[in-house]
């Protein structure tokens, strides 16, 4: 099936963020930022100029700027265009052939978040960004054992990548108002599951903790 029609819904605020099981503290010297599948193909499924997509893009942009200022690796995952049936695998049975043959159209990262020089753009052929990619190797080479996740979709790519990060002894931090989903219910469900083996927080909470960690390093 194609991507579903997505109705506008309110981004979760701090009161809607589930309590996290782990008590990990983000450290900019240990963390990397993953911007998951923020491609036109996925983002244009959301109603424009309203929640949640407005906050989604704004909050990711804010996190990206801070991560760059703090010297954190910034990684973009992106599904390739025109995948072969064998490459697409079982996802073809559910979502069809995927992104069409226009690599600068639907497959491109949205204009306001396009990767810059020094940032990493990684091909992502499965929802789990670790699978069949060099994400794990990149994090090890950068000496990073914490991963901040933002992007789409919360109950698929974000949840599966966060779970696999945990399995690789990489602490996942999912930003509740910098991810989005098909519905408020899917969004909320994903955050509840992720909170069992990861930290779920808002953009403002994460910014405060990152700046506090940077201040502690300079003492």
TrEMBL record:
Keyword DNA-binding on entry: no
Which key words are in the record?
A: Hydrolase
Q: Where is the signal peptide?
A: none
Q: Which residues form the Isochorismatase-like domain?
A: 31-205
Transmembrane regions: none
The entry's protein name is: Isochorismatase family protein
Show the SUPFAM superfamilies listed in the entry: Isochorismatase-like hydrolases
MF terms from GO for this chain are: isochorismatase activity
**Does the keyword section mention Transferase?**
no
- Species this protein is from: Streptomyces liliiviolaceus
* UniProt xrefs under InterPro entries: Isochorismatase, Isochorismatase-like_dom, Isochorismatase-like_hydrls, Isochorismatase-like_sf
Superkingdom in the source lineage? Bacteria
Gene3D superfamilies to which the protein is assigned, alphabetical:
Isochorismatase-like
Which Pfam family, an example, fits this chain?
Isochorismatase
